[in-house]
Amino acid sequence: MACQENGNLPDHQNWPCPGLLFSEAIRELHATIANDWDSVKQSACQTAAGRALWKHVVHDPLAELFAGETYLKSLYEKIKKDRLNNAREVSGVILAVRTLWFESKLEAAVNSFGGGAQVVLLGAGMDTRAYRLECLKQCDVYEIDFPEVMQMKDTLLKAAMESIDDASQLTLTAKSLKRIAADIRDEDWFKQLQASGFIPEKNTVWILEGIIYYLPHSQAMEVLKTIANHCSITQTVLLGDFMNKQSTTLSATNFHFYSDWPEHLLPTLGFSDVTLSQIGDPDADYGLFHDPLNLFNRLRGLPRSIQNHPDDGTPCCRLYLVQASGSPKNQTISRNGSS
């Protein structure tokens, strides 16, 4: 679906409204999420709500199902208020841009592999790309998340199949999809991935979207090292979003890992090529940041070493969109060049 041009967003009266046509079974499942899940697990539904309510730029027909009424209504009211007040940053825009960036880079990476690859989503949450992205037609997709999240995702899909007339949107687009109930903070998550059919020697795209900063530093580094190790085995692409240190202050309870300079960190682990974008950069804009005084445009105009904004002293909270890649050939060149 085409993005709005020049940041021309719908006004508060015409913003696409969520359908909220849920069966009683689906409502009960979302009640369980609201009552039993912690804030980290619930963030999966919040992300789905962002994709659902920015459907004029993000095509995700299953997002409303996975978001649930509570998160859809809450975000919808915030968006309407923002548009009514002509806010420079509309609620959910960062989720929309992040989704579009990841999908653009994922498609390019898969195409660079000739169309066939493995795609691993760590902390997959309520992601639906295996059902809707044509670039995954020749790909084996693996989703990894907490057992409760993976089980709930399966249950919601089954409930949806029983309650909707057109089940075409529930049809898999990817070549295959396997859900793995595992906590990536545990040491055995990679063994579980292999036991599900993952082949270390096959070209792989790893997606860490909205996940790495929830991990303690030591565990986040172990996950990154595990992925980086595959650069010595096969062609490997990592797509991830990283917070800087100041961003972790937004929620000291949930956010732990940060990297102010991911493009310096990742090559030390084994990646040979790293590119970084900030929200609002040419490849992370999508016509949604036309206001020069938008928060993200203001941050982009400052050196990244500055921790607090000189205008008002507020923390410079940055989210970096990072693509890293590596291959056995590049590692050989690197070793030879440094010998």
What general form does the structure show? globular
Reading off the top of the CATH hierarchy, the class of the largest domain is best stated as Alpha Beta
State the order of secondary-structure elements, H for helix, E for strand. Answer: HHHHHEHEHEHEHEHEHEH
Broad structural category: alpha/beta
Helix content estimate: 25-40%
Spatial ordering of strands, largest sheet = 3-2-1-4-5-7-6
> How many strands, what sense, and barrel or not for the largest sheet?
7 strands, mixed
**Runs with pLDDT <50, length 5+?**
1-6, 332-339
Q: What is the H level of CATH, i.e. the homologous superfamily of the largest domain? A: Vaccinia Virus protein VP39
Figure out the total of helices.
12
Gap from first CA to last CA: 50 Å
3D structure, described in words:
By secondary structure, the chain is α/β, with parallel strands linked by helices. The chain folds into two domains: 10-84, no CATH class; 97-338, Vaccinia Virus protein VP39 (Rossmann fold, 3-Layer(aba) Sandwich). 40% of the residues lie in helices and 13% in strands. The chain has helices at 24-36, 39-53, 63-67, 69-84, 93-112, 129-132, 147-163, 189-195, 217-228, 262-269, 295-300, 328-338, and strands at 118-122, 140-145, 176-181, 204-208, 236-243, 273-278, 319-326. β4, α9 (217-228) and β5 (236-243) form a beta-alpha-beta unit. α2 (39-53) crosses α4 (69-84). The longest helix is centred in the first third of the chain and has 20 residues, at 93-112.
